[in-house]
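Standup notes, protein team

Yesterday: finished cleaning the Duganella flavida set.
Today: histidine kinase structure.
Blockers: none.

Input for histidine kinase:
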Amino acid sequence: MASEHALKLGVAAGAAGLMALSVAADILSPIPEPRRIVLCALLAIAPASLLWQCLRRLSPRMPHMEMPSPDAAPSRELADAMLALEARLEHSPIALFRIENASGVGAVAALNASARRLTAPGRAIAPQSLHQLLAAQATGQRQLISFDTERGAERALVAISALTMQGSAQRLAALMPVESELEAEALNAWRELVQVLTHEIMNSLTPVASLSRTACSLLEEASEQLPQDIHADLNTALDAIARRAASLVDFVSSYRSLSTVPQAQPQRVLLEELFERLKALLQPQWENRLTFSVEPASMEVMIDPGQLEQALINLLKNAAEAGTEAQVSARLSRGGRLRIEVSDNGPGVPEALAAHIFTPFFSTKKQGRGIGLAMVRHLVHGNGGTVRYARPVGAGARFILTF
């Protein structure tokens, strides 16, 4: 405000100076015309300059408007599009890797979060082996590859594309883990197969069992009309048929349960309480050789408690037959997923058989039916989880359930 007041006084002073000069021009009239004009002009310079400077500083300043460049809007849109594309690639469920050279083995680097998670501790056991496997794939083809993880062997679909970036030939590897999807399809196929087989076998066995019982009754009624030796032979044969038919009915009924697993009814479950129930149920058999642990103790999960209990009972039944001690532990893994580990100190599973232990009808036991682990996989998958046989750190077997 003080500065503005001073400027106004300056304007007044300049205007007064010019007015005084006009009066002085009349006083200087005796001086010849040319000299008087020059003298007045010289005297007017100071007040006119003062008046101009003050008026210029008092005038409102107009904001400086810059005309936008024609390329500004497209550049901003391009930058936004690049950021959006980068975000989509970063969070893509497909793992992307860059292979430096266009042919042969080159340096491999992860390009997004999925690729980094795949090679982080807890997933691939040997990231360098996975990198070499990717670099060795042919360009322009899709292949199903398998690599070892801490949860067991995992399969993935890989596609390799060639491209040139800033004059440098590179390859882009897109890796999509499909183990869970393949397992789900295999489970559906086995379920349908078992359902058809058990249906057809039961249709044939039921009349055989019924007719054998009827024949035994008729034989008893006609016992007086047949010789003793013939009656004994017929009775033995019919009894054997009846017994084998009943045994096969029981055998097939156990497999029918694979195709009739009820729909999971998830509810909030406190794992520590579920483990306490299992411990009370199984402790007489294990005699303090079975331990449970949950970290943290307050961990809860949305799951069907009955089906999870049955899956763990099947795993612990195998452990009881194979080893002398077993452990069940639960904790959160990377990504906040629940990880339940069941391990024992038995002989473990031979490497050549590890890929088949979850297959229905497959068993390493002489009297085994091959249904225990197959049922575990059905129950776990029905609750949105996966089960793997993992290589044990020492001796024994180790199964990992992830939800």
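Follow-up from PR in the comments: Residues 179-221 form the longest helix (43 residues).
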